[in-house]
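JOB MANIFEST
job_type = single_chain_structure
chain_count = 1
residues = 166
[input]
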Amino acid sequence: MSTVGKAPAVSVGDTLPSSCALDDSFKGLNADATKNVLEYVKGRKVPGYVKGEQKLDKAGIDEVLVFCVNDGAVMTAWGKEMMIEDTKVTFMADTRMETTKALGLELAHPGPMGKLGNTRCKRFAMYLDDGVIKVINVSEAEDDPAGDDKPETSCIENMLKEIAAL
């Protein structure tokens, strides 16, 4: 895993920190889900996970949890725009960056922060099995600290390839 700046606070084999607190008050979660992909994304990655639902089923993925450093109202509106209703994809809010900080995935590079303003989360995808991290990929590079130009490592195709290799 390539990292620009500080490495994540979690790695393969770790349990998802109990301090990860995402706002799910605006949409219920699948309480029976044990195999999840946790994802911090930008819009162009979501359609792949929505369209790839059969591939996710084949891989045994129960739910794809997508979160952003935002509030529930914004995530609800974005979910409607991305047409995630009745799919495996659930949008959640990391309103106070508790999950981002617990994972050690704050995007603090001066380039993106000069345009975005407040701190955000690095673009990543993580495969969890019963809360244990099995795969974690951060999409970033020295010339692309926000992962905008090279998001492939955290897109559905790469995640499914890595999950299949376990």
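[summary]
The first strand starts at residue 35 and ends at 40.
The helical segments are 46-51, 53-58, 72-81, 98-103, 110-116, 156-164.
exit_status = 0
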